[in-house]
Amino acid sequence: MSSVHLVEVGPRDGLQNENKTLRVEEKVELITRAVDAGVRRIEAVSFVNPKRVPQMAGAEEVMAAVPRRADVSYIGLVLNRRGLDRALQSGVDEVNVVVVSTEEFSQRNQGCSVAEGISAAVDIVRDARAAGAFTTVTIATSFGCPFSGEVKASWIGEIIAQLVAGSAPDEIALADTIGVGVPAQVRALAALASEEAPGVPQRWHFHNTRNTGYANALTALDVGATALDASIGGFGGCPFAPAATGNIASEDLIYMLGRSGIETGVDMDVLIKAADWLGVALAKDVPGQLGRAGGFPSR
């Protein structure tokens, strides 16, 4: 692997669990800083009910104000048909629909069973592709659930098989929603995903809750990942997961990839400045490490 896409999820996952809600113009500023750093895939908004996740309010206004460039693709996260309609009307380039792998978390996160989530995802993928949008299905809690405990890799493989049989997405994302995964799980899930969805690119979403996120990211690259999610500053977490903590930090990931000879086209120093800006905007310390230590050799 000589290159990989960084999918910047800070404007969505990075903000959805914070006590402070950013204004629309601040969200657009964060997205603009990511674009200026060279990020070309950005999960910019989530079309969820703002009463349930108030940090995601104003999705349409954000999409109306983001810098539009031919080489930048904006992703909208959706959970249901209403979310898809809003996303398409807002002019997103990509639709990311979430399927949760466990029953209790699915009910808490989306108000539906796993089977209902799979059925909804199949319909959303079909209709989003018909509208010309690139489609991703993210399987949440692929590595473990805060309520149900361990999640068998074979069950994730069954979910993937059902999704592909219904309407294969352009990309499958496997998410360690609560940061419990280890590299052995990454290898097992990658093998199953390749078996059940041959030729479908794999995207991975890691949290660093237990300090394994970066090891998991490198392992995902070893097994053929085409895209890795990360959040500027390492902010983020699921509001429906107890003790949720942040994503792997974009700037820390870029440092690791760059020193490993893997190209992303993203400027690490611009990301560090963006992380500092976001920390001030959220009135919180930046979880990521690179802003404290800087790159090496020093510049």
UniProtKB/TrEMBL annotation:
GO terms for molecular function: hydroxymethylglutaryl-CoA lyase activity; metal ion binding. Coiled coil: none annotated. PANTHER family: HYDROXYMETHYLGLUTARYL-COA LYASE (PTHR42738). GO terms for biological process: ketone body biosynthetic process; L-leucine catabolic process. This is Hydroxymethylglutaryl-CoA lyase. The keyword Metal-binding applies. InterPro entries: Aldolase_TIM, HMGL, PYR_CT. Pfam families: HMGL-like. Residues 4-272 form the Pyruvate carboxyltransferase domain. It comes from Gordonia asplenii. Keywords: Lyase, Metal-binding. Belongs to the HMG-CoA lyase family.
